[in-house]
Description:
Order of helices and strands: EHEHEHEHEHEHHHHH
Oligomer: single chain
Mean pLDDT: 80
Number of helices: 10
Radius of gyration: 24 Å
CATH class of the largest domain: Alpha Beta
Distance between the termini: 86 Å
Amino acid sequence: MLYKFQRPRSDKDRPIAMTSVAPRTPAPISIMVVDDHDMVRTALCDALDAQPHFEVLASADTAGVALEMIREQPPDVAVLDVRLAEVSGIELCAAIVRSMPAPACVMLTALDDRSTVRDAVRAGASGFVRKSSHLGALFEAIESVAAGRPAFDAELTAGLIDDLRHPELRRASPLDALNAVEREILSHLCDGLTNRAIAGRVHLAESTVKSNVSAILRKLSVSSRTEAAVLAMRLHQDR
C-alpha cells in the first residue's frame, strides 16, 4: 500500500524534526569588577564590556560595597584585586564563597609569589591572573571559571604542585604566616620606606599601615622594622 504524504502548510503542521528552530545565542557572562584604583577599575570595565560575550553588571571599590551588590544581583564571575583598602581581595573572596551562592572569583594582582596564590586557593578563588599579563589572559580566565574550570598561571601552578608533591623540599618559612597585604608592606619595608610613604604606595591609611607593620613584627618574631627587612631578604634568598 502506498501512502501519500501531504506537504505541511505551516511550521505548526510540520513534524518536530522538520520544524525550523532558530539557534539560541548563549547569554553573556555577567561580571563584577572590584578594584580600589578608579582608573584601573574603569579601564577594566570598559575592556570587558567591549567583549560581546561579557556583560559588566557592576563595579565597586571596597569589599563592603561589593558584597552588597553581589547579594542584590550575583554575577557569574567576580574579578577581585588582591590588594584592597581595609579588607584584602582574598578576604573578600572568602566572604563571597562563604555567604552566598557564589560567583566564581578571579584574583587580579601584581603579587605573584606562591604564598599569595596559596592564600587565594584557600579562600576559594577559581582563578589567578597577574596584572602584568595581557588582557587576553584575563578574558580566558573569566571564560574558564564561568565554565567551571580553574584558571591559574601555569608557572605558579607548577610551583604549587611541586610543593604538594615534595613537601620535604620546601622548608617552612615565617613569611607563610603573612597575608598578601602584609607581604606587600614588608616588601616596602625592605626598601626603607616610612609608614607614610608605604601608605601612599598601597593606598591605605597610615594608621592601617602602622597596624600591619606591628602584625608583621609579631608574626616574624622580630622587634624592629630593620630586623624584619633583613629577615625577609634572607628568607627570600633561601627559597
